Amino acid sequence: MAEQLETEVKFALEEGGELPPLDGLVRAGAVHEYLQRAVYYDTLDLLLARHAITLRRRTGGSDDGWHLKLPEGGSARREVHADLDEAPGHRRVPGELVDAVATALGDAWPAGAEGALVPVSFLTTRRLETQLLADDGSVAALLSDDRVTALPAGLSMREAEVELVDGDESLLEVIEERFAEHDVVRSDSPSKLLWSLGDRPERAEAGEGPGGSAPAAVVVHQYLRLQAATLLGCADDLRADAEDAVHKARVAVRRLRSALRTFRRLFHRDVTDALRDELSWFADVLSVPRDAEVMRAHLASRLEALPDELVRGRVVERVRRAVDARHDAGHAALVETLDSQRYLRLVDALLDVLGDTPWRGRAHREARDVLPKLISKAARRAVRERDAAREAEGGQRLHLLHEYRKRAKAVRYAHEAVAPAFGDDAAVAAEAWEEVTDALGLVQDSVVAAQWLADFAAAADTVGESGSSYLSVGS
Fold it and tell me: Transmembrane residues, as ranges (predicted)?
């Protein structure tokens, strides 16, 4: 990790305009052309942006790597660099930079999901860089003519940047005077990131979401960031088996998978389908300890309600021990998974999709014109499953009710995703679908409990104990 003091000024340029000549001020040296790709990271509420801190991962230029820029006053910023291979994965922020951000923010730095650093903007810059030479031939400054595209907002702009190398600030002053003579003035935005975010930092601080006129990509990306931050922010709690950590992680994974499916017409699916498959794998890992947590509470209430005459032998103790054993085994497997290369690749793939989302189709049209139609399709799929369940019987009906629950959850999550943009109507709809999923969840819990108790009864029979008490718990 290395540090330097960066001093630069930026100017707004018209798309078809010309850079002012610098004859008589400096000599032009070598010219280089780059295609730079930068992913900018921040917290969910854009805490870094609101404190004029910039954190990015950039490739394609003369300074590939991780760059953390901290304000130092005036035109100067302290820049901390880390090589690309210093990250714990190609998209995860190096620990030294996380520590530097935390130190800079002090008490304002949050923990958990609120402090998770996730991609918030992706910029592609076509840069024409010219060396500005001093009288002795050294590079005094670099003049860059940048054409920038920002996603997910779908914005574009042109900007000139003059950054000192071996020159002093007097050079910036005379260049700024020359530019002003040609009606080229400083950029209003202090950074490309803030330009790409628009009013999002202020809205985030106020707890407001994007409006329905925002691009669909912005609304969906915000939801994906929230779920990714929740998942990444609870890693330590998962290892420590903290209360509700597995539940939070599994719900975040489900919401990610659901959003990538419900809004799949907005993505190139060759990328997002592969991510959904890996999220499904991790959801299965989380399900083992989580199912045990659910069954622990479910069976405890049933055991307490069971008449004493039906409790034979050490049924209560054995049920609790069996459930705890399943939980402990599941948690041990989860911790092992968190240390596995497959999980690390999953995190990278998730951050890849957030940092360089494969948008397509109508993603950059207004959210209110695009997203309701996709949610309606998800709702129709759920209704079809409900109607099929009503016509079925026995085991087939239970299976279809489970499928209906999964479809209903997708509709609920979709309404939650758009509620920050669409307001009360979406929030009310999400609550209505949550009531459906909660009711169906009770059915599913009873089905799973019956399966577990049947296993416990069979195990009791093999050691000469009566399995009838186990079956009574589920009756």
Answer: none
Residues of the chain with pLDDT under 50: none
CATH 2.40.320.10 assigned to domain 2-204? The reply is yes
- Residue 410's Cβ-side half-sphere holds a number of Cα atoms within 13 Å equal to 25
Question: Of all helices (H) and strands (E), which one includes residue 141?
Answer: strand 139-151
CA-based nearest residue to 28, from 143, 136, 128, 127: 143
In the chain, where the domains are located: 2-204, 216-469
Single-letter amino acid code for the residue at 423: G
Give the strand pairing for 76-82 and 2-13.
Answer: antiparallel
Q: What is the per-residue pLDDT for 450?
A: 73
CA–chain centroid gap for 312, Å, is 50
- Identify whether the C-beta of residue 81 lies closer than 8 Å to the C-beta of residue 94: no
| Inter-helix orientation angle 315-338/424-462, to 10° | 120
In the structure encoding, which two tokens stand for residue 455, read together?
């296993």
Separation of alpha carbons 13 and 157, rounded Å: 8
CATH 1.40.20.10 fits 216-469, yes or no: yes
3-state SS, residue 120: strand
C-alpha span between 6 and 173 (Å, rounded): 16
Q: Taking the model in full, what pTM does it have?
A: 0.88
pLDDT, position 302: 67
Cα–Cα distance between 400 and 393 in angstroms, integer? Answer: 10
Dist. CA 78–CA 421, nearest whole Å = 36
pLDDT at 222: 95
Q: Which residue has the tokens 């903290």?
A: 242
CA dist 436 and 309 (Å) reads 36
